UniProtKB/TrEMBL annotation:
TM region(s), chain numbering: 52-72, 93-119, 131-150, 162-184, 204-221, 228-248
UniProt KW keywords: Membrane, Transmembrane, Transmembrane helix
Species the sequence originates in: Cryptosporangium japonicum
Protein name (database record): ABC transporter permease
Keyword Metal-binding in annotation: no
Domain of life: Bacteria
């Protein structure tokens, strides 16, 4: 009889417009808003998975309200339901099961569709956490027993909306402000690109335990010979839920400097040409993007200088520490037209290091021949001699939309003037410029070589006048 009731309730649930309105229309609006906000960045599954599972809350809302209204039919039409076969407990199980199955299927399809869409955009980084996806599906399913339990114990039309509002508010506050329940909430939407591993496996166990307890609480409303067994199951589920929730809550979070107290240890390194690229685990899909910003510079260098190119190492948003012999890239990379500042930032670093300029000095490199050479090298990537223009890139993001930014005043990270830009621009139009630069490399990158001495070596005519001194001269 329970099977027939389940099929009947599943058919009713499929025809419920409330569930589809919330699950499809609201979800579509949320995805469209998020895609417009993340279009500038290459897909990072570390962030995207959390965002996608967060959409399961919309499905869960429709499931909770739908299941609650379905079980409240008994109060609206008690005489008609009393004439039907099946006990109230059977009907409670059927309603909970029908909406749980439907909610799980809809949530799984929505999460999968969003992740496939982002993965199809290419250059994917980060980690796809299967436990995280399972949590989103489970949240949509366990909303059904919660709605049924509320209908049995608090048979009021306003009870479910109030509970739903409270859960949504706590989840939102937890995401934006931190605290307010933490891992005892249905979902935790805080996720940083450089944060510690989330306890998603513990949270999944917690959610399943809560779902089992919800079904048991709904059944306890009815007199049954198995009331003691049901009570035992409820208590066991609650103990398991509390213990796993507490264990998840005890996991370490980001340290006071913003870096992970327990981060994603290790890197995967690949050598392309003369350069080694080291990405955090899961981000090797971005290495070809980095190589595209470095390879033209490498090709333009003399063979003797290529061995001195820095290693490209991906860092978190915290202080990168000692970068001797390496150039940092971050936990975010641009996509499409927004990739340009990330490319220019990296290429400028490599061009500066290849010519002996230290981008960390914030010094004035005007009047030095190596500055012109560095701008010419950068032009191999950008197609132009880049002038002093502020470059701002995002180096980390969070699941709540927060961003950590880093800004540089020039692509090379050092100061220079119009004269250096003019000479580099002329070099970029000269077919023999590369041959001349490689032939006189050691002289051109010597910090003591002024531009006036380098002009004949480069095949350039005219004079150079130093720009007014600003920061200290680059050594």
């Amino acid at each position: 009889m329970t099977g027939a009731l389940f099929r009947s309730e599943l058919g009713r649930a499929l025809r419920n417009p409330l569930l589809w309105l919330v699950a499809v229309a609201v979800h579509a609006a949320a995805v469209r808003t998020r895609l417009s906000g993340t279009a500038a960045w290459a897909p990072d599954l570390t962030i995207e998975t959390v965002d996608a599972t967060g959409d399961a809350l919309f499905v869960a809302a429709g499931v909770l309200l739908g299941a609650n209204l379905a079980i409240l039919r008994e109060r609206r039409m008690p005489e008609r339901l009393a004439a039907l076969p099946g006990r109230p407990a059977d009907r409670a199980v059927a309603v909970a099961g029908a909406f749980a199955v439907l909610g799980a299927v809809v949530a799984a399809l929505q999460i999968a569709a969003y992740l496939v869409l982002r993965i199809a955009q290419g250059s994917v980084g980060g980690h796809l956490d299967g436990f995280e996806v399972a949590c989103g599906v489970t949240v949509a399913a366990l909303a059904a027993p919660l709605g049924v339990a509320l209908g049995r114990w608090v048979p009021s039309l306003v009870a479910a909306p109030l509970v739903l509002f409270a859960l949504m508010l706590l989840t939102l506050l937890n995401r934006n402000l931190g605290g307010f329940g933490g891992w005892f909430l249905p979902l935790v939407l805080i996720r940083t690109t450089d944060g510690p591993a989330r306890p998603s496996e513990l949270h999944l166990v917690y959610l399943v335990a809560v779902g089992v307890a919800g079904v048991g609480v709904a059944l306890l409303r009815h007199r049954s010979r198995r009331r003691g067994a049901v009570l035992g199951v409820v208590l066991t589920a609650l103990v398991l839920g509390v213990s796993t929730g507490a264990a998840a809550q005890a996991r370490p979070g980001p340290g006071p400097d913003g870096r992970a107290a327990e981060g994603r240890a290790g890197t995967d390194c690949r050598r392309i040409g003369a350069v080694t690229y080291c990405a955090l685990r899961g981000y090797t899909g971005w290495i070809p993007r980095w190589a595209a910003a470095v390879a033209p510079i490498e090709a333009a260098l003399p063979a003797s200088a290529r061995d001195g190119l820095p290693t490209i190492v991906q860092h978190t948003a915290g202080a990168p520490g000692d970068t001797t012999g390496s150039v940092p890239v971050w936990s975010v990379w641009g996509r499409g037209a927004s990739e340009r500042p990330y490319r220019d930032f990296l290429a400028g670093d490599v061009a500066a290091r290849a010519t002996g300029l230290d981008t960390g000095e914030r010094c004035d490199a005007s009047g030095q021949a190596r500055t012109v050479v560095a701008l010419w090298l950068l032009g191999q990537v950008t197609g132009r001699a880049a002038g002093p223009a502020t470059i701002t890139v995002t180096i980390a993001t969070t699941g709540s939309g927060g961003r950590t930014l880093v800004t540089r005043a020039t692509p090379l990270g050092v100061s220079y003037g119009a004269g250096e830009i003019e000479h580099a621009s002329r070099l970029l139009t000269m077919p023999e410029a590369g041959r001349r630069i490689r032939a006189h490399w050691s002289v051109l990158v010597d910090p003591a070589t002024p531009i006036a001495r380098a002009l004949p070596l480069l095949g350039l005519s005219g004079h150079h006048h130093d720009s007014p001194l600003g920061p200290p001269r680059c050594a």
